[in-house]
Design brief:
Length: 486
């Protein structure tokens, strides 16, 4: 996975994720082993990150105990740091200049971006390897990315959506507010809904398509698909329509039927929710050649969840069909890498193997030609979705917690609020009794900032925490919850 992006940038992201999310502290030797690099390389990455981020955003440093630590600013999460690193990568900067139509050769681009030509040649080899994963190639005289148009649009969607929110809205000539007016019509027309984050991603995909079409790089879809889509539009209840003039006013040109249909297709690159079964029924009725085979495959894929108590398997089915719909047009989907999880559960390993085996059994069938080139991407995505559904369906252990602080009620309320941010009410229930020293049967755990050495009559388990709580404190509570679950 790490070969899909410049190795040094992947390593920096892995370093940030480790420091951001791990409850443990690391020294240089431990971190270097974890990141599979030398201590010298790690030191170079730390200096690079210090130069990249302002201290009020993120600061990586070594403390007096020789631990490598990360301080982050307010309202900064790992997704923001990921977007920041991607936005300052050679992959992003080079792709952005190519996307806006900048005519320049590699030597000129290296000079403009203060990069030596030998360094740039090394970067280009890595970028070219990543693009090849999407059946794309990089040309350098002048700089250009060539390949199937839909693959190109998905690649640019990846670049721009993964660099958001750091870049904010990256299309100055295409107002987001105008695109959103169009999306509101799509929602009403197809009885679906986009959340704020998925709405922005859908808007990015539309802006990319408009730009490519305006630059003279149209997308052309099969006539039978266009005919089926026109039939579906004509049978819309209440004679509702979508006003494509909203988008055409931006470009100054009319959109072909293929481009109009494609604005709907890219909705699957993001994520949407269903208000009712209207959209699913529409697809099944008017494009059965595409929808029915994918539904058949989705049915077998979701059967791996039969061993678990999933309350609403329809959600799994819908998520699977929607994701497989992406491969109706994209012959090869390659996403920018996600960081490896800190822990892979036995359930995830089992799901991964079962999903992969099912896909392998289908990949030689004509209706599922897309599987062979995209198997790893499909397995990764569905394993993550199914694991989430299993996790949500499990009966979580509940423990009754009492918080006591030597500094009084305000500090107790503060700790309760911090715990609520991390744990659901299905995991932690707070006891509201006011007698702080009394042992009561409904208290499973006492969390306090001072020990109860003088009160041996207290029978409940206790955790001695810092205020504010540290990652180590939360790790103690995690262990207790895990033991309860086991």
């Amino acid at each position: 996975m790490k070969n899909l992006i410049i190795a040094s940038e992947y390593r920096k992201l892995h370093l940030l994720q480790t420091l951001f999310k791990s409850p443990s502290t690391y020294q240089k030797k431990e971190l270097a082993q974890l990141l599979h690099c030398s201590i010298k390389t790690l030191e170079s990455d730390i200096v690079s990150l210090q130069e990249l981020f302002d201290k009020d955003v993120a600061y990586v440093y070594e403390d007096r105990h020789k631990n490598i630590l990360l301080d982050v600013g307010e309202h900064v999460n790992f997704a923001y740091l990921y977007a920041f690193v991607i936005s300052n990568s050679h992959l992003y900067l080079l792709s952005k200049d190519i996307f806006v139509g900048k005519k320049i050769n590699l030597a000129e681009w290296a000079a403009e971006n203060y990069t030596s030509l030998p360094t740039m040649y090394r970067r280009v080899r890595q970028i070219d390897a990543y693009l090849a994963e999407s059946n794309l190639i990089l040309e350098t005289q002048p700089l250009a990315i060539k390949g199937p148009e839909i693959n190109l649009r998905f690649f640019y969607y990846q670049i721009y959506s993964k660099s958001y929110p750091y870049t904010e809205w990256p299309f100055p000539d295409i107002p987001y507010e105008t695109i959103n007016q169009f999306i509101l019509q799509v929602e009403a027309f197809y009885h679906i809904h986009f959340s704020l984050s998925s709405r922005i991603k859908y808007a990015i995909s539309i802006a990319i398509s408009l730009t490519r079409a305006q630059q003279g790089h149209p997308v052309t879809l099969d006539e039978s698909l266009i005919h089926a889509w026109n039939q579906a539009v004509a049978t819309q209840p209440d004679k509702m329509t979508i006003d494509y003039g909203i988008l055409e006013n931006i470009t100054g040109n009319s959109l072909s039927d293929s481009e109009r249909y494609f604005t709907l297709i890219t909705a699957f690159w993001s994520h949407f929710m269903y208000k009712d079964a209207f959209f699913s029924d529409l697809r099944a009725k008017y494009i059965p050649d595409m929808h029915v085979p994918k539904s058949m495959l989705a049915s077998e894929l979701t059967s791996v969840l039969d061993a678990y108590s999933i309350p609403n398997k329809e959600v799994a089915m819908r998520e699977t069909v929607d994701f497989l719909a992406c491969f109706t047009f994209i012959d090869k989907m390659t996403s920018l890498p996600e960081m490896p999880p800190a822990h892979v559960s036995p359930e995830e390993i089992s799901l991964y193997k079962e999903i992969r085996a099912i896909l392998t059994s289908y990949e030689t069938h004509l209706d599922f030609r897309f599987i062979r080139q995209n198997k790893s991407e499909i397995v990764r995505h569905l394993t993550k979705i199914y694991s989430l559904l299993i996790d949500q369906s499990e009966q979580r252990p509940k423990i009754h917690v009492k918080v006591i602080s030597e500094n009084g009620y305000l500090w107790e309320e503060y700790v309760r609020r911090e715990i609520k941010k991390k744990y659901s009410t299905d995991q932690v229930i707070f006891c509201s009794d006011t007698i702080s020293h009394e042992s009561q049967s409904h208290v499973d755990l006492i969390i306090s900032d001072f020990p109860f050495y003088e009160q041996p009559d207290i029978q409940a388990n206790g955790l001695l925490w810092n205020i504010p709580p540290s990652p180590t404190d939360y790790a103690q509570l995690d262990n207790i919850l895990e033991r309860c679950k086991a």
